[in-house]
Amino acid sequence: MKNIILEMIDIHKSFGNTKALSGISLSLEKGDILGLCGENGAGKSTLMKILSGVYPKSTYEGDILINNQKISFKNTVDAEKNGIAIIHQELNLVPNMTVMENIWLGRYLTKFGKLNKDKMNKETRMFCKGLAPHIDPTSKIKDLSTAERQIVEIIKAISKDVKILIFDEPTSSLTEVETKKLITLIKDLQALGVTSVYISHKLNEIFELTNKVAVIRDGKSIGYDSTENLTENKIISMMVGRDLETLSKKQDYKPGKIVFEAKEYTAYSSQNPNIKTVDNASFCLYEGEILGFSGLIGAGRTELMTCIYGVYDGKYTGKSYLYDKLLNINNPQDAINNHITYVPEERKLHGIIANQKISSNITLSILKQISKKGILNLDLEKKLAQEVIKDLKIKIPSLESPISALSGGNQQKCVIGKNLLIKPKILILDEPTRGVDVGAKFEIYKYINQIAKDGCSVIIVSSELPEIINMSNRVIIMSEGKIQGELVDEAITQEAIMNLGIGS
Length: 504
Ligand SMILES: Nc1ncnc2c1ncn2[C@@H]1O[C@H](COP(=O)(O)OP(=O)(O)OP(=O)(O)O)[C@@H](O)[C@H]1O
Ligand SMILES: [Mg+2]
Fold this sequence. Notes:
Layout: E1 4-15, E2 18-29, E3 33-37, H1 44-51, E4 61-66, E5 69-71, H2 76-81, E6 84-87, H3 99-104, E7 110-111, E8 114-115, H4 117-131, H5 146-158, E9 164-168, H6 176-191, E10 195-199, H7 203-209, E11 212-217, E12 220-226, H8 232-240, E13 258-268, E14 276-286, E15 290-294, H9 301-309, E16 316-322, E17 325-326, H10 332-337, E18 340-343, H11 347-351, H12 358-363, E19 371-372, E20 375-376, H13 378-391, H14 408-420, E21 426-430, H15 438-453, E22 457-461, H16 465-471, E23 474-479, E24 482-488, H17 494-501
Parallel strand pairs: 3-10, 3-11, 6-9, 9-10, 15-22, 15-23, 18-21, 21-22
Antiparallel strand pairs: 1-2, 1-4, 4-5, 7-8, 11-12, 13-14, 13-16, 16-17, 19-20, 23-24
Helix pairs in contact: 4-5
The structure holds adenosine-5'-triphosphate and magnesium ion.
């Protein structure tokens, strides 16, 4: 006997002229963990925003049925009352509030009309314990790392006692360890009868966790099957509508001259000046090299890169050299003047101006080159943005749309494209393919290989081992702020990286 608890029937939704969903249907049985797969811009987040009340009834067509009853939500609170909660792809926490306050926002527990802080703290602690025992409920969100913030989002949703939980790329900034914990947690919830929808571009997670998979493409349902009947390749070809070429590692690379050297970088936490986030780190970079930086979250990789780029928020010491010339970089402009660019991991904070149009976001990095006497050359802006969009196959409604109207993965491609326009000698990419679908990842990798071939040196900071292993000519492994070692060519294996990463 099937126990269908949820159906979405013939859902349509448009944003202006963009048809995001054209007739999608979906059903869930109690206790299902459904994997929702599709390329960037396929409509996954939009569909789940409809299910979770972000987009109210008047903004879409089609029906939602819970236990065979038609239902519609006015907003997310309404959906939560009906047992449906979503963990968004883009984090939505209030930076200046504590973990506890964020988790209970809008539904504070009270006792005799007063805030019951003790109870809220206790419950928060309990939820943290299972997933991230190191998170202190009284810390402010702004003092947490991206990974920790993502965990807080997850805790916030599961604390709401819901029947259907939607995870929109929950692991995009989690480590393998945290991901494993989350997967166990979702399975535990399943045992308690909670039904989940899980969006991820990481197909290994889909296979580990889900029992059913739905694939959507261009806003249409393409496939729906039990996970056990599917393979990675089957899902990918449903997603992209073609077979993908496989990416071969850069073959013909020979180390050239040393382009860049970082010497003895040490950085201190801005919150606690006694804590070293980077500890005497030195490395060099060769012409045309792709250098991977691996390590667990908190290993100091991002901190080291932000020091070099002049945007680290605490005290630090250390020197950088470009072809033996000592650099003095105190802000991004200094770095860009020296042909160094950095693509940050958290695009929402550093990468984009959400309400500005796509073309100006892409060309922001070269504003000076495309302006004359302070007047922007709009034709040139348009032309350059169009080239980037074509090169990286970015899916957009129009150049005039705000960048916030793009799907998560397509925003990421804009941020990368923007930095490629600078034509840097040294390009530092921090988690470059976070939230990017398999097809688009391939385009980004191909592009990185191409610019490295043309002589640009690329640093890739990534928590995804396959990415590090497949792309890098050399890998530096960091842990606890220190450089633990490096691996070259054939010696770059998962095992070797993990061994160095845990400091053994
Ligand atoms: N607020 C918005 N305004 C205009 N267009 C939008 C808006 N949100 C989404 N879209 C468009 O709707 C389509 C579906 O986007 P959606 O975010 O659902 O994709 P997705 O499958 O979640 O992609 P990703 O894997 O990149 O997160 C895209 O073409 C996107 O540009
Ligand atoms: Mg999305």
